[in-house]
Amino acid sequence: MHPNEALFANEAFYLAFAQADYDAMQRVWSEQGELICIHPGWAAITKRDEILASWRGILGNAQQPAVTCYGARAVSMGDCVAVVCYEEVAGSVLVAINVFVEEGGRPRMVQHQSGPCGSPPEKPSRDQQLNG
Q1: pTM of the model
Q2: Phi first, then psi: what are they for 103, rounded to 5°?
Q3: Which of 55, 57, 63 has the alpha carbon at shortest distance from 28?
């Protein structure tokens, strides 16, 4: 899998999150193999049905603050690609890692973990994002 494919899949993950689209979130996650999801402050979840149940709860929560992603960088790691990025949530910044593998000819998430970031990079301005 090319790192750009994982970056695209990472964007799809955050779009599903932003739009509270459970069906899209289901499509992001792998249907095969081992999975890991660690939401900030939660214990690790390793079963697909439990991971999706956690997302159903998060996406269905009317009080869930908006989450935006910035600074995504993809790193090839053998058969997978890890995307490291920053999540802005209610004025706080978390650092996240999202790992993707190829499944059925497209990238699918096998790991998501995010947690507090003590010294995050500055979020680029809209002009910086548009101009690369």
Answers
A1: 0.90
A2: -145, 120
A3: 55
Q: Which CATH number describes the domain made up of 3-130?
A: 3.10.450.50
The C-alpha angle with vertex 69 and arms to 30 and 1, in degrees rounded to 5, equals 40
Mean pLDDT of 121-125: 77
Q: State pLDDT tens for residues 9-58.
A: 999 999 999 999 999 999 999 999 899 999 999 999 999 999 999 999 99
Could you tell me the residue ranges of all domains in the chain? 3-130
Structure tokens that stand for 15 in this block? 């779009």
The tokens 């599903």 sit on which residue? Answer: 16
Assign 90 to helix, strand or coil.
coil
> What SS3 state is found at 53?
helix
The answer to whether the CB of 15 falls within 8 A of the CB of 67 is no
β-partners of residue 85 are 96
- Report pLDDT for 129: 52
N-to-C CA span, the chain: 23
Structure tokens at 9: 């899949």
